[in-house]
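Hey all, quick one. A colleague (J.T.) asked me to put the 1-O-phosphono-alpha-D-glucopyranose job into the tracker so the inputs and the structure tokens live in one place instead of scattered across chat threads. No bug as far as I know, just bookkeeping. Sequence used:
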Amino acid sequence: MIKKAIIPAAGFGTRFLPATKAQPKEMLPIIDTPTIQYVVQEAVDSGIEDILIISGKGKRSIEDHFDRNFELETRLAEKEDEMLHELRRLSDMANIHFVRQKELNGLGDAIYYARHHVGNEPFAVLLGDTIMDSVIPVTQQLMDTFETYRCSVIAVETVPTDKVNRYGIVGGKELSDSIMQLETLVEKPALGQAPSNLAIAGRYILTPEIFRMIEQTPKGKGGEIQLTDAMLLLLSRENVYSHRIEGKRHDIGNKLDFLKTTVEFALKRKEFEKPFLAFLKEVIQQYEQ
Ligand code: G1P
């Protein structure tokens, strides 16, 4: 059973400046809920009890978000505001721990900070700026595949050929519609050089051997220690599988994706569904005139 999850959330969020100059991109809200809360919820819904968030400079508000705020709770209790229960639920969601990545040396380096906390057991990784919308939580989907193969499992999704250079791309032998036994992984390949259109989607189950591999991984794309490169090294020791996710990935660090996610999530909320849809129709009409 996988009980621990790592959420890397140390990056600068340069794609979302200036909003991320003084606040973490992981705290950007979709309606009223910070992105990272959706990510923590996915881990909890998958049966994870222990979460380590890799934070960094300027990320303190993430810690505050999952901590108790007694002053606020007292105020809400006096007013009998039902948000009180939501705030208490939030601070009791899981055992959440934090460690700070001292320098931004890449995703592989961020994961390496978790080695003492994780110990010698397989663990989940959920990127803190990526929300999944699915019936079965995506981390749970990976765990189910892990139970079959007892090896590392990487979530993937199909991307258009002209976008492969934005992702880690995997290649290998298809075992079923959704599972592939990997033969290669490349971080952000040049167009025309990708082994497939299957992109790494920000969720992983990794065996602890990955920490030894990260130690041996030289700097890669962007001069950073890439997790994708460490997983390629892992392939020479253990089998690694990819799992095509059932669900939709939302990359919140990307402005257009952020806007689309806000609209889609708003339309799913009972209180907004009708008035917001009416508003959208009005806007579209204006644009079509
Ligand atoms: C990271 C990973 C990449 C993966 C992507 C998914 O890249 O290195 O393999 O496909 O997340 O969002 P980043 O987006 O941090 O550059």
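Adding what we noticed when we looked at it: The radius of gyration is 20 Å. The chain has eleven helices and 13 strands.
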